[in-house]
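Incident log, structure service

09:12 report received: a user says their structure output differs between two submissions of the same chain.
09:20 pulled the input from the user's history:
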Amino acid sequence: MEVISFYENERQRHWLDEIGKSDWSAGAYLYQLLSDGTFFNTVGEGSKLLLLTDEDKLISFCTFAKKDEILSTDYSPWCGFIYTFPQYRGHRYIGLLFQKIESLAKEYNIPKIYLSTDHIGLYEKYGFEYITQMESIYGGVSRVYVKQIK
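09:34 re-ran on a clean worker, output below:
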């Protein structure tokens, strides 16, 4: 398995098609952002889309982005669009993407990373700590987690 960056890969069309196979509405939204060229407008310039791959198969993906679904801009950067295809769940593969994000955060001297989710008990095992609930761009509230980068 290998973690690659979508925008630093010459096979973007293939990986876009793989993202399009996601059964998740946010995956469909990400597919649309990538297809119509509005990814950076939505999540911020310099953001990254990381893919966990096994040869031609897409296992998992997530973003390391300036913005996410939370309206407040007090927190940044965000781990967003976190998804693992159903047949690969239960193996903690997303942890490989989180390791890459932590390495990037260290490289950029970023002390904290955030994520928003409705899940309870999923991201704590990767070192994220619940801090608050905040309003999302969709009108509801989402749980906000932070991870200290050491």
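09:41 both user submissions now match this output. Likely a transient worker issue. Closing.
09:42 reviewer note: The chain has a mean pLDDT of 95. The chain has one domain: 2-148.
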